[in-house]
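Structure tokens please, single chain.
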Amino acid sequence: MNPSAAMSPFIERLLKIRHGEWPVFAMAFIYFFFLLGGYFMLRPIRGAVAANNSDILHWLYTATFVSMLLLVPVFGFLVARFRRNRFIPGIYFFFIANLALFILAFDGDSTGVWVQRTFYVWLSVFNLFVVSIFWSFMADIFRPGQAQRLFGSIMAGGSLGAILGPLITAQWVSEIGTRGVMLMAGGCLLVATLMAIGLGRHVRRGRDQAREAVIGGRILEGAIHVFRSRYLLLICLLMLTHNLTATFLYNGLAVLVDRNIVGFDARTGFFSYVDLVVQILAFTFQFFVTSRLVIFLGMPKTAILPPMLLAGGFVLLGSSLSLVLFAAVQVAQRSLNYGVLGPVKEMLFTVVDRESKYKSKNFIDTVVYRGSDVTASWLFKGLMTLGLSVGAIAWVYLPVLAIWGLGAWRLGRHYEALRDQAEALSKAG
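Here you go.
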């Protein structure tokens, strides 16, 4: 018996992949691997910049939010006027060109302060746009049932890239510098762009479509639709409460790193290892746990796990604070975000119409996401200005976690109703 033939059913059962889904799954997996691999090579550099500018992070968040507001109408125009196979690679090539400029401008500790701050804002915008576009694409080509089975494993491809990315940065930044790291990241993003093009062509051939339809609609239709849909507003609440929590942990860790670790490269190395641990844990959730949780527990019970677990972590922070403990809670938050909440959030968009998958999703993933970041950052700055310690602020966020849990439960129930409705219509058709 052929060993590879014997392994194939086992792997399909392990990953919950059906026989005809392998080509699309593999291309999506590789695509996300290189996309997040490139981003996570750059993320520790942003972490070092954040520590260098921890006193003005609230302004950097504000600048990022304003940039998002300016770019959303541009994205809406591209989606309304161009086919998917044009606007997705076009946006990726635009960001690769931006990165080339930073390669020329960056020079380690000698990098100008405004170059560092511009890079921080740019990478924050870049991350949300390119990842949002990826998952809009996935929600467009996979059905809800497929998403429940496959999105966790596809996201695991990104986590593998996110494991490799910070590891490369941590090991090589002292030898090749930030410019070398950026150059390697640019190569990864180029491969991801080529995979996006190839995946789009494969899907069109499989559906016997010579030319896919332009999504059309008004430029700001996605934002308008969000405020008219109770379901999309619940997704916004999920994003808001999660980001209030995550931004506190990010800002608090930046403050503690600024107090305890000296030197740009040393700080970059610290954030690299934090990212590495996060992605190893996230990969474990995505590859082996999340899809099974959604199938066996259902969406409502799966969605409330992150806020319930994090509530215990915040009680620990409020009771006893140290750099290691704070980093551990942030690792837990980000692992649950990437490993559980991330796949769940992307599944939620498989039951909405195509325009919402791109325009409304992009509005939520960018403007709502960064708007909540700005709110959380200014709140953190205000509480610190009032004299509260980082540990004391942790207690303030327990009600936020309670609201997060309640909203996640209701959103999960709504998703299951829409999913059942979509499946009934599919069978009737």
